[in-house]
Amino acid sequence: MKKILLLTTGGTIACQPTADGLVPVLDGAALVKMVPGLASLCDITSRELLNLDSSNIESKHWQILAGAIEKYYFDFDGFVIAHGTDTMAYTAAALSWMLQHAQKPVVLTGSQQPITMPNSDAPANLKHAFAAACDKVPGVMLVFGNKIIGGSQAKKLYTESRDAFVSVNAEPWADITQAGICWRPRFLQQVERAQASPQFGFKVLSALEPRVALIKLIPGLAPGIIDYYIGQGYKGIVLEGFGAGGVPNGEQNWLPHLEKAVQVGIRVLCATQCMYEGVNLHKYPIGTWAARAGAKSAGLLTTEAAVTKLMWELANTK
C-alpha cells in the first residue's frame, strides 16, 4: 500500500456549527474515519498543521506547509492537504513555486460543506484526492468536484456549488468519473517526457516576500495609491487591469506613478481581470507604454498565480 501523509489546515471540510457560524474543529484522523473505504486505499498518517478558516491563511502558513512536505518528503509516497476553499487557489499556486521539481503528488482538496453534514461533498473530494496521491502523476494539484487541476492554474468561481473550481488557460490534468481518474493524454505525455529526462532534483525554496500588493483597477481610480505602497516599502505590485492588461493613461494617468515605482525598485506585474486568454501588453498603447515604463506581463497566469509567483521570485531571485 502507498504511504500517504494527510496535512490538515482547518477549512470548511473540518467545520462544526457554532453560535457564530461554522468553525474548523476536526483533525485528520476524524476526517479519515468519516470516509468509507479510505483507510483501505492506502496507509494514511495525519498531521494537524493549522486549524484556520482559510481566509486567515497567510504566506507564513504556505511556508509551514512547504516545510512539512520537505521534512517528510522521503517518508511518504504522496501528500494530501485538506484546506479551506476560499484561498486554496493561492496556496496551491504558492506551493507550485516553492516545491521545485517535486516527483511525488501533492494534492490539495476541501469541500463546500462540512464533512459532518448530510450529502456533503467532502467524502468524495477526499477519496478522489487520496486516489490521486496514490497515482503515478507528480506535482502540485487541486482535486475538487470531478476535476484535477494544476496547482498554478486553479481558480474558485462559485461560493456554494460543488464544482467550485476551474482550470484557467490550461486543460484540467484529469477528469474523475465512475471508472476512476482519467488523466488527459496530452498532460500525461508532458509528464512522461519530463520523467524520461530529469534535469533537477527535488528542492524546497520556501522564502517569500510578503510585501506584495494587488491593485484591482476600476474606471477612474486615482493612481496615487501606488505612492502609498512606495511609502510603505512594498517590493512588488500586481496591477489587475482591464482587457489585455493595459494601464490607464488618460485623465487618471497611472504611467508616471508606475514608472516611479519601478525606479525605486518595485517590481510591477500587469495582470487582467478577464478570466481567460491572459495579458498582451503590446496590443494597445496603454499596454505598450506600461511595458516601456518597466511593467512586466503576467501572461496567462491567474491573479492567484501571479501574486504568489511574484512573492516567490522577489525572495529567491536577484
Write the layout of secondary structure elements.
Elements lengths: L2 E8 L4 E4 L2 E4 L3 H6 L4 H4 L1 E10 L6 H14 L5 E5 L5 H11 E2 L4 E5 L12 H12 L5 E6 L2 E4 L3 E3 L8 E3 L6 E4 L2 E4 L1 H12 L6 E2 L7 E5 L8 H7 L4 E6 L13 H9 L3 E6 L12 H8 L3 E2 L5 H14 L2
Parallel strand pairs: 1-4, 1-5, 5-7, 7-8, 15-16, 16-17, 17-18
Antiparallel strand pairs: 2-3, 6-14, 8-9, 9-12, 10-11, 12-13
Helix pairs in contact: 3-4, 4-10
Could you characterize what this model shows?
The longest helix has 14 residues, at 59-72. Helix 3 packs across helix 4. It contains ten helices and 18 strands. It has an eight-stranded mixed sheet with strand order 4-1-5-7-8-9-12-13, sandwiched between helices. The protein has a four-stranded parallel sheet with strand order 15-16-17-18, with helices on both faces. The protein has a two-stranded antiparallel ribbon with strand order 2-3. A hairpin with a 2-residue loop joins strand 2 (15-18) and strand 3 (21-24). The protein has helices spanning 28-33, 38-41, 59-72, 88-98, 122-133, 185-196, 225-231, 255-263, 285-292, 303-316, and strands at residues 3-10, 15-18, 21-24, 43-52, 78-82, 99-100, 105-109, 139-144, 147-150, 154-156, 165-167, 174-177, 180-183, 203-204, 212-216, 236-241, 267-272, 296-297. It is globular, with a radius of gyration of 20 Å. With 318 residues, it is α/β, with parallel strands linked by helices.
